[in-house]
Amino acid sequence: MPRIRTSRSKRPPEGFDAIEPTLLEFQDMMRQAENTPSKKTKSEALAPIFRIHHQRSRYVYDLYYKREAISTELYEWLLKQNYADANLIAKWKKPGYEKLCCLKCIQTSESKFGSTCICRVPKAKLGKDTHVECVHCGCHGCASGS
């Protein structure tokens, strides 16, 4: 969740006002997902939150690395204010993790068998008719080779 601006907080860098409406949309979507009552399991209820978190981080990542539309100062400020996940973005920069959905999918401690999540297996190795869904975040496959 992004930090709340107070009178003591530093003003956002130049260019923030151009991307602020999109970030506010993500914040509203996140608030709505958090407040939606769910009768599902805990992991199924958290899936929309993980998805929105991924989308918001990917938006900031694309602005800085792909489109080069924001400055380094603004990018670092966004990371510091928790508008994007710095650890997830660091993984996206490494080969093989370009499509990673969340950090839980690569943590071996989160798995029953001490390996990564099933969504990290390329679809070509699973078969055509196999339906894969992550138990942590609900993604349908985030392997770069898919």
TrEMBL record:
Instruction: Tell where it localizes.
Output: Nucleus
Q: Carries keyword Nucleus? A: yes
Q: Which Gene Ontology CC terms are recorded?
A: post-mRNA release spliceosomal complex; Prp19 complex; spliceosomal complex; U2-type spliceosomal complex
**Could you mention a single GO BP entry for this protein?**
mRNA splicing, via spliceosome
Instruction: List the Pfam families.
Output: BUD31 (PF01125)
Query: The organism sits in which domain of life?
Result: Eukaryota
InterPro entries recorded for this chain?
BUD31, BUD31/G10-rel_CS
Question: Does the record's keyword annotation contain DNA damage?
Answer: no
Keywords associated with the record: Nucleus
Where is it mainly found? nucleus
Family per record: Belongs to the BUD31 (G10) family.
* Descriptive protein name: G10 protein
Question: Which organism is this protein's natural source?
Answer: Schizosaccharomyces japonicus (strain yFS275 / FY16936) (Fission yeast)
The coding gene here is cwf14
